[in-house]
Amino acid sequence: MKPWMREVLARTGSLCLAGGFLLSLAPVPCEAAGAATRDATPEVMSVLPPGQGENLVGEKEDVSPSFTSQLDMFRLLPGALNDLTTSMLTRFYKPMDFVAVSHKEIQRIDKPIPGVTIVRDKTYEVPRVFGATRRDAMFGAGYAQAQSLLWQMEVNRHTWYGTLASLMGTGKDGENLSSDAVQFRVLDYSEGEYRAMYEHLRTEYGYWGRQAYEDLQSYVDGINAYVADIRSTSRPLPVEFQQRGLTPSRWTPLDVIASSAWSHVRGLSRGLGSREAGNAIMLRRLRNLFGEVGGDQVYADLRDAGDPETPRIIPSSRRFARSSGQTNPAGLALIDTGSFVPRSALVSSDSTDVSAASQFISAAPSKSNALLVASRISATGHPLSIQGPQDKYGFPHNYDFEIQIVGPDLEARGSLEFHGPYPYNGARGRNFAFSGTAQYIDQFDMYAELLCEPNGSKPTLQSTYYLYRGRCIALKIRERFQELPGGAGSYMFRSIRSVHGPIIGQATVNGRPVVLSQARSTLFHEEAGLPALAQVFVPSVVQSARTFIDVMARSPRQLAYYYVDGKDIAFVNPGLVPIRAVGMRPDLPAWGTGEWDWQGFDPKKYTFRSIPPSQLPSAINPPDHVIAGWNNLPGDKWPISDAMWIAGPGHRVSLLKDPVVDLASQRLVSLVDLIRIHTLAGLTDVRARFTYPVLRRVIGYDDLPKDMQAAISVLDDWISAGALRRESTEPGVLDHGAAIALFDRWWPLLLRAAFQPVLGHEVMDEAGGKPNNLSALTTGPGSVSGWIGFLSKDLRTLLGNSVQGRMSRMYCGDGNLNTCRSSILTSFRTAISNTRTAFGDDFLVRRYPITCDGCVQTEFDVTGAAGRLKPIPWQNRPTFELITSFH
Known about the structure:
- By secondary structure, this protein is α+β, with helices and mostly antiparallel strands.
- It is built from 21 helices and 34 strands.
- A hairpin with a 2-residue loop joins strand 19 (465-468) and strand 20 (471-474).
- The longest helix has 29 residues, at 275-303.
């Protein structure tokens, strides 16, 4: 019996087999399981580990079984891949349909107001919201979400506003206060400004804007109805509020706008990282090392924005997202080395050192992905897909929450986050499904505001005036006072803005004092994506791939969308992309004196010319019949975002697309094929898979000492098996664990060995947003290119291979193969020594646990009082995953 089958038997006490295959994961009679398999496989299925349930109102032992009912479905899939058949898919995914819940499966029915019915099933507790009117449906969505995640909603709401410390206290080492300060630095809106954006829906976006305006009010009405039920004691108070002596407060539509604003800057260093400041610091440092011409060439090598080996979602894209013409050096405002200081929004605190809130946040890389196959190469004759968002794992989930919403001309089911009643990511409508991945079209620019004094005296870094369009004008300054809970003190934040945006730091440029502002295309337009979401689930509007693209292309958010129905697959990368001034370079700071404003920029309305939606990257049924996305670039001529230095070969998306293309050249592709390919990609160590083969050619084997040969043989075996990080046939043991333990310790040493002798330790030490935007040296097995691509391209060049887009120089060994080999072998010997120290002399033959303290594993954040889940083996898969096979 296979290990995954043994686990099922131990957990359920029943194991139904037919023809050698498992037929039931649930503890039900075998005959019932057999009957279920005779039904047609649902067209859309999903899995949400570790699931969901209603608010916890008692002790953690009262947690609903639904909180973990999908966890083993997710956890056990990798071990079952070799045995997987279509009839088994319902054991690893649940139906994601609009079929009514059978009477026996109903957990409860709520009717909070006339016209609203909410039905929850026993096993998964997915709320099915039915509204007699659209308003009723939106009301029910808010009520159902508050029933399930009221505490998580409250914590997130305070995060959006930068007031988490006022709810939870300053946190360990002031982490809550520091997080709030970073948040408030870039999202420092007043209540009036949030209100104005909400009102824009009603006045500036036509019919669907007005509909979104009404939807948001109905949604928060539903949340507030649940809050009112708690206050009237007809509903129990969630335990997290009980523990803190808190009472839930009412919501307003402005909270939804605040959530939308947060979504525009969170993650991937889109808004909270150093961005162009880091790039400028990097370029200055490289020029100091290599001279102006050489420094610019090295910068371009590592930036790799146009690298021909970078996998694109649409390889033949013809569209162009930046202004034409050469860069004008007069527009560049390169920060002097060592002068950059991030601005702390925290100006006073009774309980924490103000300096604790002065740093940028470096967000973890995103992992959302999508793999779609067109009907031309599908075994069913219809498109197939597997896709979903990656929003971190939590218990319960902090973001993903599955819901169904049905009303007149409205059908939606999918993952609902907290900014509105629309399950926009990992979702389906009546006859289609879609999901999104975070993308990197550049919506941000940094302006160096040249400081001045109104009386003409010499400015300093303490000056509060700056030059704009020939005038010395004042920075806008506003302060916000907050109290800590329990009378523990108070603190004050300060907002500072120029016409371009919030001030995020100060520096000097050629000795002249400047403050650095962050311009963002969605600034003061945080509501702009809601009209698109208001119509995407309306069957009378979205009836095809083309109408889906037309609707979603108007979203301002950096989220590429992947669409599938019974006929077509499609892709669109929306985003409000400003048209820059001619000669402006978008990846480096520009002078904020006015000449380098976005074209048509009106500082009073914060409006500007932008790329029309019709010119954004999109495709329907592309020529190679496959669409694959894993946070990679959308097309040939779209410049990468300032903060993302991840172009080049060895991108993880190749693990999705290349096997499908290869398989399709031999036979038609099935849904099971797609799931196998997708799941194996999520188990692959990308670093090792794409760099070790060329490393092996550099370091050789025959002339090495026996202990190094033994270590290399272990790595060879692992790579030959696919560089997978998965459980072995022995339960609880990591397959090829010795190779993985060794490679994890080698990787950061290897990068330093290959690049630090040329780039210097400052560049290497500052990688990972500290402050330069190179990927961290310690990036894990699911990494997106960056150093992977640099290393692969450099070593292949050094070996004399034909390399597309060769870099300006060779880095490892400064271009000398023997020196490079010696450096790499020295790093390898150190890695062997470190692994031996950590695990003992038998480190090459011992058994390594699949989960343990310090292991690379999937961990679940504690988001409430439900307790802590044990980690499960590492999988680089979406946190909400859906598969589709429309008939």
